[in-house]
């Protein structure tokens, strides 16, 4: 409550009246009917309306009832609402009759649009109830669930401004929509089989598949081993039977995706149990309305049951159905049971569920585009006529495991299966934040976008354009930062255009006019030229933020820090202020300024970015640094081995880098884990998997050297070069790396007397390294901060850039 | 070669070297300028300074390169090159024998091209104030009536054609400079293209754009044209003529042949319906035997140059600010 002074005296039974202001995400989430029902229950008179600042209420009745109202507004708010503030002032007692929901007062909205939410339990039971008029209707939703962000063209969030505009409500749906006591009162996407969107089945050539029952036909085809392109909430998925090895291999071949793991959709928790380890935190996350893909530790039988789905990975990405359509597929496969109890039993159907984004281009969202771009991949299409306005990939998360207590003397990740503290599926907001087990983002998109991240203070509106890989953009307004959905890698024109479109769309739905524009220091990123062009066009100041400064600032932003702090970035490469490629940096960050306190010993990148795709080149680089050049050709039978040795000896196209990611590649190459990465980060992921399987080992004695501010792991690499056991080598690498880094940080802490340490950069997605390093650092009285509401990788870069800009341009 | 007072004799020697090698009626007049009649029409003029290391490379040397480079710049307007000037900056101590070789090569290139060097100048700078030799050449030429070729005339739907294999010169230079054990068989493609251009203009007078993708390679040239014309481009990787040795060397080095320099290649943009006639005219000329249709101009307000890769994906062929900086995070 905003005011501290007691506004009402609960002993006073004479009528009083208050005007209440509610701020937060309170529109389009059934807040007014909620207030209406409360008012009826508490026998209050007055009114409620939406306006630019949120919800305004005038309520009159006895003091105790009003007090109850005020507390319940906050505590019993509808699922999708996020109440930031409830404040009240006394007003004159008037003759009032009943309680009314008044028309919205238009104006400059500050309430934002809510993310998309998975179908709610009430709607779920309707679609499995043969007596319900929405039985098996795949577009069922209510004010507590359904699409929001992905169907909204512009504000205010009203049906005509969404892609539901073209569907006229039938009388039955209209009654629900108009009835304040109905769960569907003003549910903008409200629909039924009579008036709403419909499914269509098409052959891959676009020919209509005549079928009385498209859902039954879809399941029949999935079971027959077909690959289906299925239009969901944020875009098309490619789905197929995860247990059919031949089909999965065909999907890989058609999608030209070698090795990269697929996620699997299963009916419910019971269906997951045989394949992966799922603790309470994981369960809550899987069932949360955001319905992300959750990475879970595989059980022994998993790979055999789903061959080729996530080869070589220790984890499997799992998600539960979230669109009614998804549920209806499992319902059909289960023989159309009545009610929802069947979901608690295990079901055999497992569907590979991968974004339909051929060639790394953005997710396909449009029907015609799907036919054009997916006809070489899909055997058939499941489409519908509700347009997806904004594409939104599935989010990918993992439960951050708590570092084991140092007193237990344990290594990483032991005994963490049933982490008791609740995860925080709703990172911002009223659900209570827990300090231990937490959601860690790998990709933040559907279900979370465009939820605001609260900043430590307000400032100018910033547009931050991010980097190049896994890009997002960020817009700020006041003390809120809005990080866009995952946009993708800016190496193709379609993704670049999608960046430009996302900026326009987010500016529109958030009603933000940026005042400052920021970008990465790399001159060749599209995000950089876009930022410069945007700033020029709008006459705005624009500047570049160093990549790793932004990584640290991203974590600082969400933890409300301004510095000075110590920042440790373990990353791939990002351009440094000296024009070289950084990536293993110890920084002192203070507001908009930073200082490079130290870095990992540089290694040459023979062939520039090619060395990032070919870990054997980094191994060759390490051998060269160790004076063991002559081994390069013997170890690597690659046709370029001689050339790479020559390049290293002549320093030809061998830019250097202090990157930690490339150190992982070097280790993977030396251990023979992987010579060429099929996808970005594969070598490091395999190395992590090996380390996890091997279990903890003691760090290597003298495995690193601290040369002034430079941390040199060449002794460790030398040892790995002579290690035959890749599992042991991988474990030794992680352990020694963590110890070296911890000692390095501690030394810097001693020098700088800074006791807060922020960890950022893509390498922190590596759970073994993160857990072990955190454990070691926690042995001393430090405060550690990790990325939490955004990914630690480049997906979080834009938030950090924005926070730096806000400090560079204080109001 | 020396500088200062003792240098006078030397300067004389050099002068004579040039006079004998380049010998023509204009130089013989011994004036400080060349004077000549020019035919009626639109005249073009281009200048280029040549700095290359090493000075001698497989397929050529700085001498012929400096003649070809400027002739090509003139020819890219569709013009007939007429006269050249040459200016030398020599570093004290530069071996006279090398100079003689360079000058001989220039003279041959000029004679073969039929474009005389009609005026010139030489300066000698102190040791360590130059890099052996720098050569600046300037050329003038006349554009045939009815020909209008310019970088801003590419239109959506137009065909993009390249006259032969790309990336040869850059890789050839690199492999000798760095004394690489691979890529040694690669020769520079340095050549004067005005003959090819004349044949092309004769076949298709309505050519829209002509350009020689020298420094920065094909990628940079196409990006320049895309921006100048306000269009986008879509290239097909499988259609790009690239020598196997060049492709392999680039793969080893982690370089993209599209950014590697060419000194005897041109890229031409014309209406789609003229493409066949143009390709035929090009392929009958010795310098255009490997001419290939590599893509088309498309509408694009971002002016992206894109490429359909051999795997069916699409990637942006960036306009790089400088060198190929690492970016993979
Ligand atoms: Fe990064
Ligand atoms: Mg020039
Ligand atoms: Zn619902
Ligand atoms: Zn209806």
Automatic annotation (TrEMBL), chain A:
Alphabetical UniProt keywords: Hydrolase, Ligase, Metal-binding, Zinc, Zinc-finger
Pathway: Protein modification; [NiFe] hydrogenase maturation
Domain Acylphosphatase-like: start-end pairs: 17-103
GO terms assigned for molecular function: acylphosphatase activity; carboxyl- or carbamoyltransferase activity; double-stranded RNA binding; ligase activity; zinc ion binding
UniProt entry tagged with the keyword Lipid metabolism: no
Active site annotation, chain numbering: 32, 50
Residues in YrdC-like domain copies: 212-413
Domain of life according to the entry: Bacteria
Record EC number: 6.2.-.-
Reactions catalysed: an acyl phosphate + H2O = a carboxylate + phosphate + H(+); C-terminal L-cysteinyl-[HypE protein] + carbamoyl phosphate + ATP + H2O = C-terminal S-carboxamide-L-cysteinyl-[HypE protein] + AMP + phosphate + diphosphate + H(+)
GO biological process, one term: protein maturation
EC main group: ligase
Function according to Swiss-Prot or TrEMBL: Involved in the maturation of [NiFe] hydrogenases. Along with HypE, it catalyzes the synthesis of the CN ligands of the active site iron of [NiFe]-hydrogenases. HypF functions as a carbamoyl transferase using carbamoylphosphate as a substrate and transferring the carboxamido moiety in an ATP-dependent reaction to the thiolate of the C-terminal cysteine of HypE yielding a protein-S-carboxamide.
Matching PANTHER family: CARBAMOYLTRANSFERASE (PTHR42959), CARBAMOYLTRANSFERASE HYPF (PTHR42959:SF1)
Family the entry assigns: Belongs to the carbamoyltransferase HypF family.
Name of the molecule in the record: Carbamoyltransferase HypF
Native source species: Sulfuricella denitrificans (strain DSM 22764 / NBRC 105220 / skB26)
């Amino acid at each position: 409550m905003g005011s501290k002074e007691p506004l009402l005296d609960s002993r006073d039974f004479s009528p009083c009246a208050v005007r209440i202001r509610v701020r937060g995400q309170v529109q389009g989430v059934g807040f007014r009917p909620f207030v209406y029902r409360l008012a009826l229950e508490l026998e209050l008179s007055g009114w409620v309306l939406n306006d630019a600042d949120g919800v305004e209420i005038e309520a009159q009745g006895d003091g105790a009832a009003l007090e109850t109202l005020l507390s319940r507004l906050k505590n019993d708010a509808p699922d999708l609402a996020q109440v930031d503030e409830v404040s009240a002032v006394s007003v004159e007692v008037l003759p009032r009759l009943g309680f009314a929901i008044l028309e919205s007062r238009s104006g400059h909205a500050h309430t934002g649009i809510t993310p998309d939410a998975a179908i709610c339990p009430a709607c779920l039971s309707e679609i499995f109830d043969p007596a319900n008029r929405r039985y098996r209707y795949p577009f069922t939703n209510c004010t507590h669930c359904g699409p929001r962000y992905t169907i909204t063209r512009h504000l205010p969030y009203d049906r005509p401004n969404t892609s539901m505009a073209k569907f006229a409500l039938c009388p039955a749906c209209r009654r629900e929509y108009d009835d304040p006591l109905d769960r569907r009162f003003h549910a903008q996407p409200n629909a039924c089989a009579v008036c709403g969107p419909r499914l269509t089945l098409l052959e891959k050539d676009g020919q209509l598949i005549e079928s009385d029952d498209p859902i039954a036909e879809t399941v029949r085809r999935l079971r027959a081993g077909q690959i289906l392109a299925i239009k969901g909430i944020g875009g098309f998925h490619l789905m197929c039977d995860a247990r059919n090895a031949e089909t999965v291999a065909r999907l890989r071949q058609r999608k030209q995706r070698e090795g990269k793991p697929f996620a699997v959709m299963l009916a419910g928790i019971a269906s997951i149990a045989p394949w992966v380890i799922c603790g309470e935190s994981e369960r809550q996350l899987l069932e949360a309305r955001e319905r992300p893909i959750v990475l879970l530790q595989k059980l022994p039988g998993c790979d055999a049951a789903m061959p080729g789905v996530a080869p070589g990975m220790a984890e499997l990405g799992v998600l539960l159905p979230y669109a009614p359509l998804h549920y209806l597929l499992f319902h059909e496969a289960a023989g159309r049971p009545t009610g929802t109890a069947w979901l608690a039993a295990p079901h055999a159907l497992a569907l590979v569920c991968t974004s339909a984004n051929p060639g790394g281009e953005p997710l396909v969202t449009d029907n015609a585009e799907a036919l054009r771009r997916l006809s070489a991949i899909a055997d058939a299409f499941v489409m519908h006529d509700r347009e997806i306005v904004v594409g939104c990939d599935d989010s990918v998360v993992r439960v951050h495991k708590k570092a084991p207590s140092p007193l237990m003397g344990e290594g990483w990740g032991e005994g963490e299966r049933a982490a008791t503290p609740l995860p925080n599926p709703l990172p911002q907001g009223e659900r209570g934040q827990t300090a231990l087990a937490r959601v860690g983002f790998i990709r933040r998109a559907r279900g979370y976008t465009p939820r605001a991240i609260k900043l430590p203070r307000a400032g100018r509106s910033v547009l931050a354009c991010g980097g190049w890989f896994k890009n997002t953009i960020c817009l700020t307004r006041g003390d809120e930062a809005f990080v866009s959905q995952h946009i993708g890698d800016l190496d193709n024109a379609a993704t670049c255009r999608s960046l430009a479109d996302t900026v326009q769309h987010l500016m529109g739905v958030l009603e933000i006019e940026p005042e400052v524009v920021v970008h990465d220091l790399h001159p060749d990123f599209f995000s950089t030229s876009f930022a410069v062009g945007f700033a020029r066009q709008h006459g705005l100041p624009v500047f570049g933020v160093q990549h790793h400064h932004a990584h640290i600032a991203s974590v600082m932003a969400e933890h409300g820090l301004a510095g000075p702090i110590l920042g440790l970035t373990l990353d791939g490469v990002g351009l440094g202020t000296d024009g070289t490629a950084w990536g293993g940096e110890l920084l002192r960050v203070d507001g908009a300024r930073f200082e490079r306190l130290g870095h990992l010993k540089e290694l040459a990148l023979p062939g520039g970015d090619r060395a990032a795709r070919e870990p054997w080149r980094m191994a060759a680089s390490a051998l060269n640094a160790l004076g063991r050049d002559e081994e390069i050709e013997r170890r690597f039978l690659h046709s370029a081995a001689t050339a790479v040795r020559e390049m290293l000896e002549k320093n030809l196209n061998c830019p250097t880098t202090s990157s930690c990611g490339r150190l992982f590649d070097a280790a993977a190459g030396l251990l023979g884990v992987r010579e060429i990465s099929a996808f970005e980060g594969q070598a490091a992921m395999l190395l992590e998997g090996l380390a996890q399987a091997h279990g903890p080992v003691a760090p290597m004695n003298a495995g690193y050297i601290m040369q002034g501010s430079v941390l040199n792991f060449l002794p460790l690499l030398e040892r790995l070069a002579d290690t035959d056991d890749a599992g042991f080598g991988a474990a030794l690498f992680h352990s020694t790396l963590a110890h070296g880094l911890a000692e390095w940080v501690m030394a810097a802490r001693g020098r700088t007397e800074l006791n807060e340490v922020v960890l950022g950069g893509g390498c922190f997605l590596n759970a073994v390294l993160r857990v072990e390093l955190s454990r070691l650092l926690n042995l001393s009285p430090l405060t550690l901060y990790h990325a939490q509401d955004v990914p630690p990788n480049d997906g979080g870069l834009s938030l950090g850039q924005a926070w730096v800009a806000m400090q560079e341009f204080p109001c | 070669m020396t500088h200062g007072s003792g240098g006078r004799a030397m300067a004389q020697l050099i002068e004579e070297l040039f006079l004998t090698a380049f010998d023509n009626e204009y130089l013989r007049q011994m004036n400080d300028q060349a004077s000549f009649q020019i035919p009626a029409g639109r005249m073009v003029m281009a200048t280029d300074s040549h700095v290359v290391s090493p000075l001698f490379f497989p397929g050529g040397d700085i001498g012929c390169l400096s003649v070809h480079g400027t002739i090509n710049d003139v020819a890219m307007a569709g013009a007939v090159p007429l006269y050249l000037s040459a200016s030398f900056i020599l570093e004290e101590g530069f071996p006279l024998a090398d100079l003689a070789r360079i000058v001989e090569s220039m003279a041959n290139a000029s004679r073969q091209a039929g474009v005389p060097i009609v005026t010139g100048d030489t300066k000698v700078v102190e040791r360590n104030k130059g890099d052996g030799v720098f050569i600046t050449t300037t050329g003038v030429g006349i554009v045939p009536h009815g020909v209008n070729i310019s970088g801003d005339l590419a239109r959506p739907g137009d065909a993009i054609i390249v006259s032969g294999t790309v990336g040869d010169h850059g890789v050839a230079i690199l492999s000798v400079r760095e004394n690489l054990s691979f890529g040694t068989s690669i020769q520079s493609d340095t050549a004067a293209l005005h003959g090819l251009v004349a044949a092309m203009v004769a076949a298709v007078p309505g050519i829209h754009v002509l350009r020689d993708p020298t420094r920065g390679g094909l990628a940079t040239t196409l990006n320049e044209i895309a921006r100048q014309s306000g269009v986008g481009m879509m290239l097909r990787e499988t259609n790009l003529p690239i020598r196997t040795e060049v492709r392999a060397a680039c793969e080893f080095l982690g370089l993209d042949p599209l950014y590697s320099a060419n000194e005897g290649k041109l890229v031409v943009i014309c209406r789609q319906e003229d493409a066949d006639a143009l390709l035929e005219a090009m392929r009958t000329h010795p310098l255009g035997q490997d001419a290939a249709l590599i893509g088309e101009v498309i509408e694009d307000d971002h002016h992206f140059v894109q490429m359909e890769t051999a795997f069916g994906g699409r990637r942006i062929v960036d306009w790089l600010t400088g060198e190929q900086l690492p970016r993979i995070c």
